[in-house]
Amino acid sequence: MKMRWLQPALLTGCVILIGGIDYFTGPEIGFSLFYLVPITWGAWHGDRRVALLLAVIASFFWFSADAAWHGINFVTTWNGFTRFGIYLAIALLTSRLREDEARLRQLNARLQELLEQEQHLSRTDPLTDLPNRRLFVDELRRAGARIHRTGKPIAVSYIDLDRFKAFNDRFGHAAGDAVLRHVAGILERHVRGNDVAARLGGAQFAVLLDQCTEDNARKTMTRLLDQLVAGLREIAKGDVGVSVGVACFDGPQLSPEAMIDHADAAMYCAKGQGANRLYVTHLTAAPPAEPAAT
């Protein structure tokens, strides 16, 4: 409570001090503008009532100083009302500007929140809360650029749920959605911190294995395949299988869509080998062309 009244008390004391100096220096040294300092400060950092009170006090002290030197007459009375109007207008205007500035900050904060939500929704799959294809493509583009800067390879895994459509038609969309969310949960729990798991659409998922050699990609995706098979047996009772294709890259300048297509082709190779299989392919940089003989 003491701190609440500390600022108004200090500002009032400042106005009284200016009034005292104004009284003793006389009309030759004008102090009317100095009263605006505490009034403006109070209106911006305090509230409107404090500013209005300071305007009244400042007008009283200015009128008292002017009347002490010139007496009370029409001119001093008119000047007193004029000063009061000026101080009052400045207090109200500054208070209004402070309120508008506060509302603008709130609107900006709300707008930023909505923009972040919109960005999240536009780059996230609403069912599984995994990154969607758009975000996955962006991550692939950045990872492809890192290959040429660091020389460290990457791997892209394409995951397709076998017989998912039949399962969805038989047990309903709610059961199918539960399977998709279960798979997404497995991916989130078992990919490395610098990897990216995404839902590309339907029953297709993808994993970007950043800075990962072919051998490590094979080991990582073999462990992940085991987790997926066990998870699908648990939630789908074996009615849904999984095929995983992995494409490893260490140099070719390929677009993100081309990388996904290579991983997709590897997935179909895995699907051709039977249920719950993994297939890994490796695309390496082409050797530089020999200079033509002269």
Describe what you observe in this structure.
α2 (36-45) packs antiparallel against α3. A hairpin with a 2-residue loop joins β2 (196-201) and β3 (204-209). The protein has a 5-stranded mixed beta sheet with strand order 2-3-1-4-5, sandwiched between helices. It is an alpha+beta fold and 294 residues long. The protein is 65% helix and 12% strand. The protein is rod-shaped. The relative contact order is 0.09. The longest helix has 49 residues, at 74-122. The chain contains 9 helices and 5 strands; from the N terminus they run αααααβααββαβαβ.
Cα shape: rod-shaped
Shape-level CATH architecture of the largest domain: 2-Layer Sandwich
Describe the biggest sheet?
A: 5 strands, mixed
Estimate percent helicity. 55-70%
For this structure, what is the CATH homologous superfamily of the largest domain? Reverse transcriptase/Diguanylate cyclase domain
**Number of domains as seen in the coordinates:** 2
For this entry, what is the oligomeric state of its chains? Answer: single chain
Distance between the termini: 94 Å
CATH fold label of the largest domain: Alpha-Beta Plaits
Backbone CA Rg:
37 Å
